[in-house]
Amino acid sequence: MKLAERFARRRKEKKLSQKRAAQTAGVSYSSLRRFERSGEISLCSLLKLAYAIGYLEDFEKVFAATAITDLRDL
C-alpha cells in the first residue's frame, strides 16, 4: 500500500473529510487531493498533514537517533 493510500485510510479513520484535513493542516485542498490521487506532495505539506491527523510522531521515529555500537558507525 502506498503512502498516500495509507494517509487517506488514516484520515478516514479520524472521520476527517479532505477539506477539513487540509484546513486543519494549513495546506490547500487541491494539494491534499493531488496527494491522495497521485502521491505527489511537498515534504512540508506532508508533515503538516501528518500532524493534523495525529501521526507526526511516526515520522519522527524514522529519523530517531540510534545507539552507536561501533566507531565505524560515526
From TrEMBL:
Occurrences of domain HTH cro/C1-type (ranges): 7-59
InterPro entries cross-referenced by the UniProt entry: Cro/C1-type_HTH (IPR001387), Lambda_DNA-bd_dom_sf (IPR010982)
Superkingdom in the source lineage: Bacteria
GO molecular function: DNA binding
UniProt xrefs under SUPFAM superfamilies: lambda repressor-like DNA-binding domains
One Pfam family it belongs to: HTH_3
Protein's UniProt name: Helix-turn-helix transcriptional regulator
